[in-house]
Amino acid sequence: MLPTRATAVALRWSTLLAATLLAGCSLLGGGGKERATIYAPDPRVEATTGWPSVDWQLSLSRATASQMNDSLRIAVRPAPNELQVYKGAAWAKTPSDMLEDAVLRALEDSERIPAVARQGSGISADYKLVLDLRRFESDYTGGTGGSVPAATIEVNAKLLHAPDQEVVAARTFLQAVPAASVGVGDVVTAFESGLGAVAGDVAGWVLTSGNAHAAEHP
Questions:
Q1: What's the distance, CA 109 to chain centroid?
Q2: Pairing mode of beta strands 115-118, 73-79
Q3: C-alpha to C-alpha distances, 140 to 63, 65, 95, 194, 198, nearest whole angstrom
């Protein structure tokens, strides 16, 4: 019996995913196939005393990133102008999804805002947050002396006044957290810390910037 179209598509994607995770001379590590370890950072962010409580609502646009920055493969920069990936390791979610989830949860858990949700969820938002992920990589070249990498996360954020799409504020956030060792597990732990720090920075900035704009435009 010939396979159905759905079966054929599923088989093709399964084959591509397996090839992405397990093969390729660009991957770091020894040769041969091996089972990929899936990593799922789960940062938790605590609101600081400096975060204001607001009375407006916020929507999050889907975070954007280049294809190179938004892969399930864990990117590593061993030298300037050179980008590779760790062999036998992958993210459970794309970096843009992890960023979006972390910022959303940081704002929700802060209890400083009446409502925050992804765009299209149906809430009537007063402000909109637009995130662009510029870097999400393990970097040996960023000032750690070259012996261990730093989990490097760079995000550009824009806060828009939803009714007229006016840009209220814009800022670029950067975190580079040195890993405890060159081991992938320690690198992932550094990414978790960096992601939590970026999410906290973005959340506090959104609340402060939106609050200042709302006070000036009652």
A1: 18
A2: unpaired
A3: 26, 22, 19, 15, 20
Tell me the whole-structure pTM to 2 decimals: 0.83
Length of the chain: 218
The contacts of residue 2 (CB under 8 Å, 6+ apart) are none
Backbone angles phi, psi at 125, to 5 degrees: -90, 140
Residue with tokens 């920069």: 77
pLDDT in tens, 63-84: 999 998 999 999 999 999 999 9
User: Which SS3 state, helix, strand or coil, does residue 72 take?
Assistant: coil
Per-residue b or e along 110-123, where b marks 16 or more CB atoms closer than 10 Å to that residue's CB: bebbeebbebeeee
Q: What CA–CA distance (Å, rounded) separates 183 from 41?
A: 15
The DSSP output letter for 35 is P
Q: What is the pLDDT of residues 122-137, one digit of tens each?
A: 889 999 999 999 999 9
Backbone angles phi, psi at 110, to 5 degrees: -70, -25
